[in-house]
Amino acid sequence: MEEFAARDVRCDLQMPVQIAWADDSKMALTENISAGGLFAATSSPGLVGDRVVLKFRLPDVHRWLVAEAEVRWVRVKPAAEVRHGAKGMGIMFTSVSLAVATRLREFISTR
Which of 34, 52, 85, 106 has its C-alpha lying 20 to 30 A from 64's C-alpha? Predict the structure, then answer.
């Protein structure tokens, strides 16, 4: 399993992402992604410290990618001064397979 830094290079990307908690799951839309995490726009974000499992598909990747992650910060009000100022949560990957890590890095390096 790979571990990442939260401050990796981010690229803008809007794609559906399933976020699963132990007792709930919901769909959200990413605003950006990096090798270390993503921002999930949602009107009902989780709590800082929540452990989640993410399922998503990158463009041109036809299978689900899965990552264990943690909610690191939450935006509860839209922020007009931020380029992507939607409500939502910053999520850091805590554990991904080598295959997922490779796909993420390849995708981001081509943007």
Answer: 85
Q: Which domain holds residue 56?
A: 11-109
Q: How much is the pTM?
A: 0.85
Indicate the number of domains in the chain. Answer: 1
Q: Tell me how far apart the alpha carbons of residues 106 and 75 are, in angstroms, rounded to a whole number.
A: 29
4 within some domain: no
- The CATH number that applies at residue 88 is 2.40.10.220
Instruction: Give the whole-angstrom CA distance, residue 53 versus residue 23.
Output: 12
For 27-75, the pLDDT digits (tens) are 999 999 999 999 999 988 999 999 999 999 998 888 999 999 999 999 9
85, 73, 41, 15 alpha-carbon torsion, rounded to 10°: 110
Q: Is residue 3 domain-resident?
A: no
Three-state SS for 94? strand
